[in-house]
Amino acid sequence: MSFQLFPPTQQQKQGLALWIALVALSYFVHQYLFELMEIFREDFSYSLLSLYLFFGIFSIVLRVVLFQVRSRNFDLLGMSFLIVTTLKMLICFLLVRPILKSTTVSASIEKTNFFVMFIVFLAIETVVTIRILNEKQ
User: Fold this and answer.
1) How many domains does the chain divide into?
2) Which of 3, 45, 51, 112 has its CB surrounded by the most CB atoms within 10 Å?
3) Distance spanning both ends of the chain, measured CA to CA
4) One digit per residue, pLDDT tens: the chain, 137 residues?
5) Residues with Cβ within 8 Å of residue 66, at least 6 apart in sequence
6) SS3 of 42, please?
7) Residue 11 counted as domain residue
8) Sign of CA dihedral 9, 128, 85, 104
9) Structure pTM?
10) Are the C-beta atoms of 66 and 129 separated by less than 8 Å?
11) Domain with 81 in it
């Protein structure tokens, strides 16, 4: 069984372009708010850019997996979403451990920042999955 990348439809290309634009806008707004509130990120375990890249790449991987599964066996789409999301949660737990152990002044801000980003990306991924599930074959 070979793994061939699906040819994306025009709607999928537009959805991905919109998603990239929203994530980029979100990053710049996030960066601006940190500067506006004078939050010093030097003590953070992970930079804002690295977190956005991690969550963004994982979201793209999820989309690719979902579209692959949809083209092969639509009935396994929900289970595939749960498996990829569980894997993401495990990796996030490993990433968040240094933040949870941190005793710096900015640790509470970094914890909140990490979990809010996790929830936002999870919500976006859930909406994308729901839209795929609701599509007619």
Assistant:
1) 1
2) 51
3) 23
4) 444 556 667 777 777 788 888 888 989 999 999 889 888 778 788 889 999 999 999 998 898 888 888 888 888 888 999 999 999 999 999 989 988 888 877 888 888 889 989 998 998 889 888 888 887 65
5) 77, 80, 81, 84, 128, 129, 132
6) coil
7) no
8) positive
9) 0.82
10) yes
11) 46-137
